[in-house]
Design goal:
This protein has 9 helices and 11 strands. By secondary structure, it is α+β, with helices and mostly antiparallel strands. The chain folds into 2 domains: 35-98, Winged helix-like DNA-binding domain superfamily/Winged helix DNA-binding domain (Arc Repressor Mutant, subunit A); 111-264, Chorismate lyase-like (Chorismate lyase, 3-Layer(aba) Sandwich), CATH 3.40.1410. Strands 1-8-9-10-7-6-5 form a 7-stranded antiparallel β-sheet. The protein has a two-stranded antiparallel ribbon with strand order 2-3. The two termini are 32 Å apart. The relative contact order is 0.15. Mean pLDDT is 83; it is low at 1-27.
Length: 269
């Protein structure tokens, strides 16, 4: 028995930029206002193209200002926005780096489930069990969520995350088949880091924002068995669409969260 859907939560979306031309060797200068937004767009283009990989340093503000023929203040304002959107990370005395899901502070940016005791460190890392990983054809609803056509190849992954030995999250993921060609259950099981870190290091896909819809549900028989709960247990159903650069959807994730020892926490600003 499901309740009415709660309002969706979403991380920030990049403001659109239009008319920005590639710079560099040609020495072109952005011609549209506000200028810092155009510089931000050009930096995003370099991030998307892989000029600077996750975890790598981007050029200094001085170098970028020279490259784009603008002031350092304009570059700084562009980088400030990229930092606020968690696309780059400033490190005091070291420079600015492309954000990566391998970093501790980024790993759980999209996972909002918290233990009721408030101590996320006490649980340790999640114990992951891959149920299956299948290559299928996209149904109409999956295709719509991933901006694909019905029948396009997709990957379906199911897994259980347990904390302190207790199965807590049951997830079903749908991924477009082409970017994730070669992804297998064995590959997922053997990777020790976060799944999004695997996506960016081995498949070149970086998740930069997500949108979620949340509602309360009861599990069906199979779900109750996998989560070791009664079929009357209240669960949170969290549906997430994760996007890479240019707002391209790259993952549909449907999760069921136990609520007897955990709660969903989202900081709004």
């Amino acid at each position: 028995m499901a309740t009415q859907s709660a309002p969706s939560f979403a991380t920030s979306t990049h403001p659109p930029y239009a008319g920005a031309e590639a710079l560099g060797a040609g020495g072109l200068t952005p011609a549209f206002s506000p200028l810092y937004q155009q510089i931000k767009g050009l930096i995003l283009q370099s991030l998307q193209s892989g000029e600077w990989k996750p975890g790598e340093a981007i050029p200094s503000e001085m170098d970028l200002a020279a490259r784009f023929r603008v002031s350092q203040g304009t570059v700084r304002k562009a980088i400030d926005e990229l930092s606020a959107e968690n696309l780059v990370v400033r490190r005091q005395g070291k420079g600015t780096f492309v954000a990566t899901h391998s970093e501790q502070q980024v790993q759980y940016r999209f996972l909002k489930l918290q233990p009721d005791n408030g101590d996320t460190q006490s649980e340790g890392p999640a114990e992951r069990t891959i149920i299956d990983c299948k290559r299928l054809r996209a149904s109409a609803d999956i295709a719509r969520a991933l901006s694909l056509r019905s029948g396009d190849p997709v990957l379906q992954v199911r897994r259980v995350l347990a904390y302190a030995g207790v199965p807590t999250i049951l997830e079903e993921l749908w991924l477009p088949g082409t970017p994730f060609k070669g992804l297998t259950a064995e590959r997922l099981s053997n990777y020790n880091g976060p799944m999004y870190a695997l996506f960016e290091t081995e498949f070149g896909v970086r998740m930069v924002r997500a949108e979620e819809s949340i509602r309360a549900v009861n599990p069906d028989e199979e779900q109750a068995l996998l989560l070791d709960v009664d079929m009357t247990a209240p669960l949170l159903s969290v549906e997430r669409v994760a996007y890479t650069y240019n707002d391209t959807p790259m993952e549909l994730r449907r999760g069921l969260y136990r609520t007897d020892t955990h709660h969903y926490r989202n900081a709004l600003s």
